[in-house]
C-alpha cells in the first residue's frame, strides 16, 4: 500500500496546522461592534496580556446594610443603592485567551447580620439570545447561560464554596477542595436565589447565610472571590479575573488567581445547631423469595458548629433511602469499577477525606486518563457489601479547620446483617482520621488512619501519608504512600504514587507512577488491581485557530506502561488522539491505540475463559459531539479493534432534547461486542430519562434502564418537592425485572414504593 495511512496523514495535517500562519477570521471585540483582525486575534495571548489586569488589582467591596432585600431577581430594593458596584468586562478564557468579554457584568455585594447578598446584572445586547434549559435544583447547567460564584472564605488560596445559577434561577452548589482536585457537587446547603430576564439581559439575586459557611473569625475579613459567566450565543467562557487558557476550566479554582472581596464583617458566633430528622414509609415486594414487607424507619442527623471553622456531626439510624437509582454500568472488564457516594452524611466534608491523587490524576490536562488504581478511603465500603445494604446504628464526625490545620475524624457502627441463607455480615466499627497541614502559597501534607474492626482478631487497618506541592498555578507535584494492616500479612502490603502536572500555554503534560503491592488490601478503600507498577504519561499540544471554521485542534500522545512487582510486562498502550473543535463548538476526535497485554494465568471476562499468554493488538476510536447549548444535542462514538484473543467493538449514542422549558428528555444507547476465542458477549444498554420541572423546587423524573448483559430492566419514578431549603418530600417507585424469566408476574424480581420526608430545624 502506498501513500500515508490515516494516522500519519492526520499527524502531517496537524503539523501543518500547528506550524502554519494564523488564518483570518473575525471575532467580536469587547465593545461588541468591532472585529479583531487576524493579527489581533491570533497572538491573542500577547494582546490579552496588555488588556488583562492582574487579579490582585481587582477588588470588590462588601458593604453593610440595614435595609431589607427581597430575593426575587429584580435589583430594585433601595438597599442595593448602598452597594459599591463593580461594572466591567470579564476576561475570556475561550475563545480568546484573557481578552475582554463581549458583554459587561455588574456586581453588587451587601451583607447584614445574617446573610451575604449578591446582586448581578448580566448585560446582553440581545436578550432574545439568552439560553437556558435546566430548572431542576442541582441540575447540570453546563449547556446554559450561567453564572457561578466562588468564595474562598479562609483566603487560603486552595478551597472555596461554589454557588451557581442560570436565567431560570436554578440553584447549584458545591465544595471545592485543593484547587479543584476534589469537587463535591452533592453537598447541599441553605441559600436563596432568583433570576429574571429583563430588557438589559438577565439579573440574579443571592442570599447566602453566614451559618451555611465555614470561615475565619475576625471583625473585617478579606475573602477570595472569582465569578464565572458563560455566554452561550457567543460561545464565551469568561471570568472576573484573567485565567490563562492553558490552565483549562479547572483554572477557575486556582485561589492564587482570585480577586479580593473586602470588608466582610461576620456576625458573632451563635448556637448554630442543625437537627435534620427523616422519616420513611414503604413497601417492598421480592418475588424471587416471596418476601413482601412493609417498613417504617426514622432517624436524624445533627450538626453543631463548635466554631465558624469546625463542625461536629452526629447520625442516628443513618439515612440509606437513596431516592434516585444508580445508573446501569455493564462491566465487561477483568477489574473492579468504582461507583460514586450519594449518602448525605458522608458527603459533607468529603473533600477533606480525599487522599492523595485518588481523584483523576491530570484532570486538568487535555485528554488525560481519568482513573486511579487505588483509593485508600472509599466511603461506599461503609454499610454496603456486594451491593447490599448493611444497616448502620449511627456515627459521629468532626471536620473543619484549626488555623492552617484541617482535621477530620469519623466513627460509624454497623449492625449484624444476614446477606443470604449462608452469609452473615458481622457488626463492625469503622474509623477514619484525617489530618492536613497547609504550608507555602498553596501546598499541603497530610496523614490518614483507617480502622475496620469486627472483633479483636478480625480487623483491617491502613495508614497513609500524602503531599501536594503547587509550585506555581501551572506546575503541580503530588504523591502518596500507604500501608494496609491485615491479620497474618506482614509484607507486600504497600501502595503509593508520585506525579506531576504542567499546564502551560499550548502544552499540557502529566506524568504519574503508581505501585500497588499484591497484598495491599484496605477494606475501607478501593483497589482496582493489585500487584502492579504503572507509569502513565500524557503530552497534549493545542493550537487555537479561531477562524471562521475552526476553534482549536489538539494532538494528544498518551503512554501507559504496567508491570507486576517482578517487572513482568502486563500492559502497554500508546494512544495517539487528534481532536478538532469547530467554530460552532461541535467536536470531532479520532484516536488509534496500540497495545500489548499479558495474562500470567488463565482469567475470565464474565464466564469466558482467556488463556495465559501475551496479546498484541490495536483499536481505533471515532467520536463526534455536537454543541450542547442547543435545544437538541448529542454524541456518537464507535470503538473497534483487538482485545486479548479476539475482537471488540463498542457503539454509543446519546441525545439530550429540551422539549419545552420544563420538559427534558435524555436518551442513551450503547452496544458492546466481545468476540473471544472461547465465547462471545453482546451487551446492549438503553436508558431514557424524562424530567419535568414544575418549578425550581418541584420536579418529577422517570428513568428507564435496560441492560441485556445482566438481563435487567429497571425503572425509577421520583417526585421531589423542596418545600423549604434542605427540606424534601420524596415519592419513589422502583421496579426491577429479569428479562430471562418467563412471561407473567414471575418476570418481576422486586418492586418498591417509598415515601420519604426530611425536615431541617436550625437555630
From TrEMBL:
<dbReference type="GO" id="GO:0016052">
    <property type="term" value="P:carbohydrate catabolic process"/>
</dbReference>
<feature type="domain" description="DUF5916">
    <location>
        <begin position="270"/>
        <end position="704"/>
    </location>
</feature>
<protein>
    <submittedName>
        <fullName>Uncharacterized protein</fullName>
    </submittedName>
</protein>
<dbReference type="GO" id="GO:0004553">
    <property type="term" value="F:hydrolase activity, hydrolyzing O-glycosyl compounds"/>
</dbReference>
<dbReference type="InterPro" id="IPR045670">
    <property type="entry name" value="DUF5916"/>
</dbReference>
<dbReference type="GO" id="GO:0030246">
    <property type="term" value="F:carbohydrate binding"/>
</dbReference>
<dbReference type="Pfam" id="PF19313">
    <property type="entry name" value="DUF5916"/>
</dbReference>
<feature type="domain" description="Carbohydrate-binding">
    <location>
        <begin position="71"/>
        <end position="227"/>
    </location>
</feature>
<dbReference type="InterPro" id="IPR010502">
    <property type="entry name" value="Carb-bd_dom_fam9"/>
</dbReference>
<dbReference type="Pfam" id="PF06452">
    <property type="entry name" value="CBM9_1"/>
</dbReference>
Amino acid at each position: 500500500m502506498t501513500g500515508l495511512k490515516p494516522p500519519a496523514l492526520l499527524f502531517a495535517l496537524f503539523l501543518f496546522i500547528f506550524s502554519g500562519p494564523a488564518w483570518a477570521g473575525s471575532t467580536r471585540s469587547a465593545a461588541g461592534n468591532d472585529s479583531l483582525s487576524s493579527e489581533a486575534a491570533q497572538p491573542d495571548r500577547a494582546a490579552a496580556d496588555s488588556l488583562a489586569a492582574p487579579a490582585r488589582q481587582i477588588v470588590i467591596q462588601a458593604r453593610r446594610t440595614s435595609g431589607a432585600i427581597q430575593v426575587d431577581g429584580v435589583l430594585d430594593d433601595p438597599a442595593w443603592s448602598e452597594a459599591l458596584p463593580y461594572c466591567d468586562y470579564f476576561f475570556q478564557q475561550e475563545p480568546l485567551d484573557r481578552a475582554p468579554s463581549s458583554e459587561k457584568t455588574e456586581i453588587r455585594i451587601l451583607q447584614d447580620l445574617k446573610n451575604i447578598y449578591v446582586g448581578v446584572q448580566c448585560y446582553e445586547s440581545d436578550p432574545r439570545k439568552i439560553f437556558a434549559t435546566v430548572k431542576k435544583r442541582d441540575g447540570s447547567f453546563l449547556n446554559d447561560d450561567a453564572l457561578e460564584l466562588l468564595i474562598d472564605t479562609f483566603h487560603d488560596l486552595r478551597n472555596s464554596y461554589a454557588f451557581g445559577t442560570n436565567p431560570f434561577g436554578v440553584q447549584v452548589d458545591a465544595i471545592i477542595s485543593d484547587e479543584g482536585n476534589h469537587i463535591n457537587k452533592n453537598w447541599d446547603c441553605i441559600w436563596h436565589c432568583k433570576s429574571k430576564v429583563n430588557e438589559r439581559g438577565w439579573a440574579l439575586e443571592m442570599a447566602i447565610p453566614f451559618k451555611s459557611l465555614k470561615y475565619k473569625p475576625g471583625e473585617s475579613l478579606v475573602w477570595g472571590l472569582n465569578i464565572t459567566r458563560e455566554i452561550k450565543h457567543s460561545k464565551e467562557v469568561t471570568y472576573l479575573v484573567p485565567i490563562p487558557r492553558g490552565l483549562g476550566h479547572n483554572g477557575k479554582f486556582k485561589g492564587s488567581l482570585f480577586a479580593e472581596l473586602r470588608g466582610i464583617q461576620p456576625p458573632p458566633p451563635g448556637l448554630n445547631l442543625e437537627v435534620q430528622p427523616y422519616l420513611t414509609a414503604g413497601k417492598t415486594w421480592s418475588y424471587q423469595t416471596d418476601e413482601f414487607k412493609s417498613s417504617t424507619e426514622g432517624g436524624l442527623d445533627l450538626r453543631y458548629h463548635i466554631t465558624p471553622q469546625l463542625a461536629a456531626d452526629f447520625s442516628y439510624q443513618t439515612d440509606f433511602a437513596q431516592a434516585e437509582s444508580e445508573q446501569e454500568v455493564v462491566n465487561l472488564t477483568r477489574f473492579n469499577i468504582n461507583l460514586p457516594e450519594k449518602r448525605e452524611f458522608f458527603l459533607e466534608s468529603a473533600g477533606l477525606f480525599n487522599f492523595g491523587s485518588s481523584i483523576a490524576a491530570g484532570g486538568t490536562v487535555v485528554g488525560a486518563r481519568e482513573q486511579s488504581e487505588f483509593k485508600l478511603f472509599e466511603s461506599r465500603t461503609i454499610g454496603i457489601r456486594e451491593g447490599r445494604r448493611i444497616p448502620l446504628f449511627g456515627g459521629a464526625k468532626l471536620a473543619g479547620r484549626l488555623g492552617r490545620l484541617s482535621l477530620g475524624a469519623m466513627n460509624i457502627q454497623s449492625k449484624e446483617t444476614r446477606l443470604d441463607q449462608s452469609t452473615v455480615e458481622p457488626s463492625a466499627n469503622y474509623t477514619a482520621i484525617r489530618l492536613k497541614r497547609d504550608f507555602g502559597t498553596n501546598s499541603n501534607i497530610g496523614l490518614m488512619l483507617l480502622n475496620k474492626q469486627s472483633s479483636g482478631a478480625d480487623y483491617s487497618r491502613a495508614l497513609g501519608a500524602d503531599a501536594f506541592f503547587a509550585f506555581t498555578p501551572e506546575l503541580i507535584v503530588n504523591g502518596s504512600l500507604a500501608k494496609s494492616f491485615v491479620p497474618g500479612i506482614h509484607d507486600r502490603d504497600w501502595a503509593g504514587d508520585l506525579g506531576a502536572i504542567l499546564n502551560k500555554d499550548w502544552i499540557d503534560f502529566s506524568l504519574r507512577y503508581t505501585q500497588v503491592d499484591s497484598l495491599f488490601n484496605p477494606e475501607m478503600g478501593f483497589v482496582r488491581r493489585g500487584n502492579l507498577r504503572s507509569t502513565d504519561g500524557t503530552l497534549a499540544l493545542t493550537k487555537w485557530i479561531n477562524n471562521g471554521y475552526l476553534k482549536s485542534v489538539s494532538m494528544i500522545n498518551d503512554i501507559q506502561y504496567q508491570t507486576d512487582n517482578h517487572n513482568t510486562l502486563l500492559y502497554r498502550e500508546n494512544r495517539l488522539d487528534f481532536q478538532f473543535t469547530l467554530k460552532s463548538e461541535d467536536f470531532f476526535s479520532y484516536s488509534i491505540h496500540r497495545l500489548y497485554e499479558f495474562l500470567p494465568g488463565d482469567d475470565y471476562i464474565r464466564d469466558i475463559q482467556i488463556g495465559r499468554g501475551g496479546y498484541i493488538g490495536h483499536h481505533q476510536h471515532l467520536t463526534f459531539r455536537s454543541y450542547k447549548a442547543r435545544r437538541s444535542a448529542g454524541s456518537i462514538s464507535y470503538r473497534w479493534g483487538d482485545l486479548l484473543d479476539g475482537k471488540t467493538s463498542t457503539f454509543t449514542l446519546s441525545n439530550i432534547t429540551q422539549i419545552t422549558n420544563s420538559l427534558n428528555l435524555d436518551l442513551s444507547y450503547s452496544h458492546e461486542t466481545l468476540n473471544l476465542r472461547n465465547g462471545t458477549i453482546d451487551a446492549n444498554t438503553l436508558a431514557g430519562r424524562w424530567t419535568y420541572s414544575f418549578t425550581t423546587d418541584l420536579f418529577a423524573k422517570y428513568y428507564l434502564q435496560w441492560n441485556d448483559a445482566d438481563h435487567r430492566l429497571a425503572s425509577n419514578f421520583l417526585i421531589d418537592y423542596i418545600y423549604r431549603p434542605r427540606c424534601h418530600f420524596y415519592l419513589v417507585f422502583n421496579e426491577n425485572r429479569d428479562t430471562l424469566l418467563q412471561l407473567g408476574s414471575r418476570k418481576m424480581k422486586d418492586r418498591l414504593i417509598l415515601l420519604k420526608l426530611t425536615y431541617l430545624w436550625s437555630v
